[in-house]
């Protein structure tokens, strides 16, 4: 869908324009106040001849020529007729403020369906309904319904939100400058994903910030994320729906159905999408990426503090948030030592003392020296900026940063305050001009810094995403034998196996497989084989095999009388190793998700699993394994075996390829356990669930 | 130590008073500007006759009458002679700004030792050295060396910090009002613990906020904490030294040695000390406790939001931070439903919509209704307060809170903004007057709210703390037999056991104990018995016992030739159960700490342990066990056994009593494992380490 007529219109009509408070009046007032060019604006109101001294048209049809965008400030009932009238003016975009749609139960949902149908039929991209509109600061178009105070807001952040209130929060943030701001509301025929795609493409947008309640176009979302990753354009997303309570609220708020949260998080991770935990993070991360002139080349930071106490606080926080402290060279330290008073010492965090804090030129020298150190990637000045600047140190330090940053080879600088006092706008403006993000306080600041550093250093491996093409309702399970055969025929290494319908056949197959082996009932109707006496292990010879065959068949006939028994499944006993589990769950939006974890309570109690979308590269598979808290258990823990991690990596990659290829066939796979030994990885049991169609 | 002459002096002399910038000048200027009563102030400077138009004394001796407090703005070398001179004026307190002491290596530490010696000898309580002084807002005494802007700062927060910069941060916080502010610096003869004790006692102080780098008077600290807990006076502490880096910094900063961090955290928990993770938390928690007129009676909150998007964000955050959402009664919900527009719905978080947000009287009605609901303990209004109030909603909502809070039976109200905009001081002032804490944004706000609710609902069980009386250097291990006997003779239940020096004696003892049993080498020189072949399990009869005796003795003679072998230890085989470990570590400051965790990798990899100071009540022991992530494994996990938790509770209590009683005897105890079964808890192995003296 081309959004240019909606978001970059040449001619605009406000329908329901007015001088009174309310959507019509506020939108008109905002438009006239904040928009750059009023030549191509038409105000439409059947009851008025002029509005704020401008000609008012009585209807859209009265306008001469085409109208790219209509901003509909009128009630729900009027919307479809107005869209039809607008279509006669070759209109390609509409903003619909009216509520009473998907957010208000079955009748509303039906009205929204009708609206989408009309919009699609007429070829009009609709923003809303139940939205607050948009502002395009690049072209100077302010089609936004909530009043805001007068301020320059232009910049390079493209922001989308399903909640108008949250857009307002962004607009009210004095440190955010925008290319586009979009309140998408119920996102009826233009979805959050479409706007996201627009902003990722948009050259005036340096960073995309999105508040999302749900996903409706997963393929488009993934494609936009991939495009952003390839450009290394930061996309910061706050997604609600982590709690069941907020899922419930999103449904009643904009009619969104929230996707499975863990899956979305794994998708974010794959594409380097920066996830924000709340609004403060969303705004501050967007502002930080917006201000930064260049990303750090690595993640090693030097903190500069003015007191030992604050340096100590920063040391604790940097460890807590996994921020890597740079190890400066002896030469750098020796030089810094000449700058600090006798009682100072050169550590990282570097307590430069008030001596340097009060001395602009010396602080510039210190920053230059730290920046030149090859072991340093970024400098973080940590000091509270008070509202009413009495403390001289702040102005000295802000000035020092500003001077030091004139050297464009200086490594990136960040500023973290300790207490929420960072509203001294003049200091903020100087830092912004110096490309130095003023992060929020303490923990927020460290969270933001860590996410920015992670984004800066990550490499992206483009992969063809495996989003399913169809929606599949019905499915059926395969037997263990069939499951393993399917895996094997799709390139996944599985141990040898055979089925036998009679004891004689079993003996013959056992001759080929070799003893000792396991005997399990072969029946697609029995999933919990042990529960019905359908498993015998460690069968050492023919006599034991015949006895086991008889016992397994008898037990199952007795304990599962309705099951079709097709004989037994024979497998050589595997070498026991570390037990892992591997799973595939085919998400209806994002396709097969690969899960790996240590078997047993590690998965269940400590939730120690890694999740990633299929397919996986070897590096991605390795990263998943190494991200497990229980990973040391695979790696020679306490003198134990060093397991064959590469065999597990290979298994994960092959399974992920099978799952990606089978994105419209394989619903679930449960491998539990797979034994990882010093020289391999062997699947001991597997259950595949396939779609019927 | 009585701190009244130091902190509440009647007569004060500033030595080194001056008109010039620097400690002397800034302190003088501050004192003259901010202190209430200048009658009893003497300015001392040998080279001046007047300072700022006031008479200057050439020496302390020149002053007629006594001087309670001297503020020494002079260099390090002059300090001891001045203290001696001051003692002649019956001086009982001194503030020493000078640096060059414990923070600057061995010579400095020696100078500090001399200073302490002089102060103790002269009976003078010294604040500092290397400090920034104090301000007593109750009596109007401003003995502080850093300049701050003019503002009313009186209030009920008592703040102590080893870092002057951090005190300055507090003083600069517009929402903090203080009774006392103390920059203790190197805390030479008056320690942080002494100030803490003073503020816990002080009736003008409602909440104590402390920044600490180390502990030097553990007994005093614990006593002050216990006193505060009994009064339910909140004590908020930021302790650095969580990371090794910050421990290193603290040492170079104020010469503090940071105590074992986990131990201190367990002590905080015992006494309900509210721990702050950084400065933002320290300040905002202090301010919140200061503003609150009454603590909530329970922890069930209702959130009031103005948009569905923000309600969703709040729902996610409240779940993440464990804030309990109140379930309102149907009656309350039905009433609220009449207040919201048609499209609104009544959930918690309650999206009251802009309809109520803009309507002060209706919001007051909503708050009253929510407050009257017996299922609600507190109300949290969540809305961003912008700097330049354009958005009418804010003033309407702030006004509504203010009106609703006039009813003193209204349950406590908190305010959490979403984005760091909370510097609209007029709104903050109205909320403060209404006893409604304005918390920081999102995550910080939720952290603070959770900590306040936890503090509000916790009950304190006073216990005699077991702080060791002596310092013990040398220690020795007991054998397993001796360890278990010691435990047994100190009230800890242990399974039967016997030692035998010969095979015949072993057979005789086995007859009393019963088979099957375990045979282990009995030697205090061998700690890892299995490693030297010193263990045989599951011995079923006399023949096996004799063989085992011979094998164990032979193996150890061969593999541990230097060990004194005293025979074997016999114990009936225990019923296998869930393996737990219990440990005691006698902290030199805070005494025996009891540790419990699930055995094996749970402790080692997931650090899933609970720690608490001895002794323990049954409730405390139970809380420890239930706090383990692996606790479900004890409690019928996946159809497993429901272990005898009460037996484990009893064991912990008995061990803690043994450890508390042995606070100057027992250094360490390592019980690994103890088997917890459906009907008991049995210690399988124990190692005690005892102090020599």
From TrEMBL, chains A, B:
Which keywords has UniProt assigned to this entry?
ATP-binding, Ligase, Nucleotide-binding
Where does the ATP-grasp domain lie?
484-520
Enumerate the Pfam families for this protein.
ATP-grasp_5 (PF13549), CoA_binding_2 (PF13380), Succ_CoA_lig (PF13607)
Q: Which domain of life is it from?
A: Bacteria
Specify whether Nucleotide-binding is a keyword of the entry: yes
Provide the GO MF annotations for this entry: ligase activity
The molecule here is called Acetate--CoA ligase family protein
Give the source species.
Answer: Enterocloster hominis (ex Hitch et al. 2024)
